[in-house]
Each structure stands twice: as structure tokens, then as C-alpha cells.
Amino acid sequence: MKSKEILAQLEALGDEKMRAQNKKRGAGDNQFGVKMGDIRNIAKKLKTNHELALELWDTGNVEARFLAALIIDPKKLSNDEIAKIVSSEKFTHIADWFYSYVIKEYADKETLRQKWMHTADVMQARAGWSLTSGCVTRIPELVDIPALLDRIEKEMPTAAPEVQWTMNSTLAQIGINHTEYRERALAIGEKLGIYRDYPTSKGCTSPFAPIWINEMVRRQK
To answer: Which end of the chain is less crowded, N or C, counting CB atoms within 10 A of the terminal residue's CB?
Structure first.
């Protein structure tokens, strides 16, 4: 199938409420408002299709980019291509899908992580801190946790909102997974106060790091 045919399918599935929801979350006007389940159903039918994924991504359409993240082949991407794709998307919901389905599966993601932890590119930095948060949880030997805490304490207050979110996730994961650094992680979270008043739905855990850390530690007992 061609990208034009896929776009026609997506447009036919458009929903005004979903379009408004996407807009509220930061999406631009190049969207149809298709539900995630419908996008996943199309992806299941298409299966992995790298060339089509690149075509869909280049349209800039919100749903086309969600779909591209599901059908692209990470093995066929170079470091430079991934970096270019990451930089090209400002809607964090799409960026996080691309992170989950592509970057996390990419063989050379550690090279990208190390580079992105020292970049001025906001979306690459967001992905870099996401990768670092994952290292804190699963491969802590790759990171210097005291140095990360120093950076978070110094840089998070003035970081771009997109980066602040994943830096905060790293702070929380340090406190949750590393008892020796928990007290300092809690102290930094309290001192900075970032997301202290973040609106949280009933049944969900606040992203405010001290609440997040304490709740997850409580569940581990």
C-alpha cells in the first residue's frame, strides 16, 4: 500500500473528540484524530514495512507518525537517521511512542544515549534522559548515579518542559531502585518542587518525585 492510501484510511477513521484531545496534549493541526486502537489495527495488517514507515513519517501527520513508529524496522536505521527523526517531532506523545517502539529496540542505543545526554536539541535530550532512566532501573553500571543527581539538581529547574519530564523520571527511578541514594533523591525532589501541584487523576500516582518514589517503595514491601 502507498502512504496516500493509508492517509485516506486514517482520515476516514477521524474523530473530532480525539482531535481535540490530541490538540490539548500539544499536537498540531496536521492530524485526523484517530483512536490508538484503530492505529494499532492498521499496523497489525501492514506488519513491518520500513519504506512505507519512512514515507508516512515524512507526511508530518500525527496518525501517520504513530503508525510509522509501529511498522518501522529499527535494524534498518542508522544513528544519524534516528537522531534526525527524533529532532523532527515535537509532539511528546509521538516522541514517546517512537522511543518505546524504536529507540528502546535499537542495538546501538547506548551510543545515542551518551551523545544525547550532552546535546542542546530538546527532543534528543528528552530521549537521552529516557534512556538514562532505563539504565538506572535495569543497567545501573552504565551510569554514574551521584553525577546524575548533581545534574538533575542543577539543571532540571531551567530545563525545557520536554526534558524536565524525563529528567524527573530519572530522579524517581533512582529513588525507587537505589536505597543508598533514596534520601538524596527525595531531598532533591522536595527542594525543586517540580510537579508538586501536577493534576493527577484518581487512582494514578503523582509525577512529583517524592510522592512517586514513596508510593512505589510502599508497593514493593
So the answer is: C
State the Cα–Cα distance between residues 29 and 94, nearest whole angstrom: 14
Contact in structure between 62 and 21 (CB atoms under 8 Å): no
Q: What is the pLDDT of residue 81?
A: 97
Q: What is the pLDDT of residues 60-114, one digit of tens each?
A: 999 999 999 999 999 999 999 999 999 999 999 999 999 999 999 999 999 999 9
pLDDT at 132: 98
Model confidence pLDDT, tens digit, residues 15-48:
999 999 999 999 999 999 999 999 999 999 999 9
Using CA atoms, how far residue 88 sits from 104, 120, 152, in Å, is 18, 14, 25
User: In whole angstroms, what is the distance from residue 182 CA to residue 186 CA?
Assistant: 6
Instruction: Enter the DSSP assignment of 204.
Output: S
- C-alpha to C-alpha distances, 141 to 3, 131, 153, nearest whole angstrom: 43, 14, 21
Grid coordinates belonging to 180: 543508598
Answer positive or negative: Cα dihedral of 5, 2, 90, 216.
positive
Alpha helices in 109-144 (DSSP H): 109-116, 122-138
Residues 63 and 32: beta-carbon distance below 8 Å: yes
Ramachandran quadrant class, 72 (left: phi over 0; alpha: psi -120 to 50; beta: rest): beta
What are the CA-CA distances from residue 110 to residues 72, 141, 166, 198, 200 (Å)? 20, 12, 17, 31, 33
